[in-house]
Amino acid sequence: MRLCVIAVAGMLVFAGFSTAAKADDFVTNGNFAPANPGSGYGAVTGWTEATSAQGSNSSAGPFWDNGNPGVSTVGFIQGDGSFSQTLTGLTPGTVYTLSFVDNARLGATCSPACDATPTLTVLLNGGTLIGPTAVDPVGGSNPFDSVSIEFIALSSSEVLDFSSMTPTVPTTGLGEDGTLLLSDVDVSTTTVVPEPSSLMLLGTGVLGAAGMMRRRLLRS
Q1: 146 vs 190: CA distance, rounded Å
Q2: Which tens digits make up the pLDDT trace of 143-187?
Q3: pLDDT in tens, 52-82
Q4: What is the per-residue DSSP string for 55-112?
Q5: pLDDT tens digits for range 12-46
Q6: How many other C-beta atoms lie within 10 A of the C-beta of residue 141?
Q7: What is the dihedral angle through the alpha carbons of 88, 94, 95, 99, rounded to the nearest 10 degrees?
Q8: How far apart are CA 62 and CA 32, in angstroms?
């Protein structure tokens, strides 16, 4: 009987502490590394680009001119364009969390020619997850804006797409020069980590179950 009590208590405690905070990331190169030389235009590993006016910058690049994303590189979309990639290895019916940080070029050195506000839309297999929403510069060394949303995978592979558009000037019909900045893109499964109060209740329950079994043992 004592072995049974230990086994039950051990199983309950293990269940209380066995949750994982985060599983594997399904995004390739979510930080758009490495930074491309010069202005930063060019291919970015893991991502498909819609235009040639895209690429990757470090903080020394001309497009990442404000804010701190907490990483050393960002992807940028100047004007209209998109970054996309196919996520693979998903489990249909599973809930995933998409998270990323975004910002916009401040354009202080070329205002007002390049300080238009970009508009971000996030698509999954052509369906809208986020947006369209305007992205304003955070300014200075402030953190990039953090965004997070949950979705349910419908198939084992899904196309994730970040699209940016800038306003059209009514008099010319041409797009203004605004730039969207992205980094720290992550898609992962998450589980809930128990609150300390929940763990306390769990421990109380284990002790109560053990005490009840001990009393039954003494009576027998």
Answers
A1: 17
A2: 999 999 999 999 999 999 999 998 765 555 555 789 999 999 999
A3: 999 999 999 999 999 999 999 999 999 999 9
A4: EEE-TTSSS--S-B-SSS-EEEEESSEEEEEEE-S--TT-EEEEEEEEEE---TTTTT
A5: 333 343 334 455 689 999 999 999 999 999 999 99
A6: 9
A7: -10
A8: 16
DSSP states of the chain: -HHHHHHHHHHHHHHHH---S------SSTT-PSPPSTT-BS--TT-EESSSSEEEE-TTSSS--S-B-SSS-EEEEESSEEEEEEE-S--TT-EEEEEEEEEE---TTTTTTT-PPPEEEEEETTEEEEEEEE-----TTPBPEEEEEEEE-SSS-EEEEEEEE-PBPTTT-PBP--EEEEEEEEEE---PPPPHHHHHHHHHHHHHHHHHHHHHHHH-
Separation CA 169–CA 110 (nearest Å): 17
In whole angstroms, what is the distance from residue 212 CA to residue 194 CA?
Answer: 25
> And the tokens for 209?
């179950």
The rounded distance, in Å, linking the Cα atoms of 22 and 188 is 7
Helix axis angle for 196-219 and 2-17, nearest 10°, is: 170
Name which of 35, 164, 37 is nearest 103 in CA terms.
Answer: 164
CA atoms of 67 and 137, how far apart (whole Å): 8
Query: How would you classify the pairing of strands 158-165 and 119-124?
Result: antiparallel
Q: Which two tokens stand for residue 102?
A: 């975004």
Distance, CA of 177 to CA of 216 (rounded, Å): 78
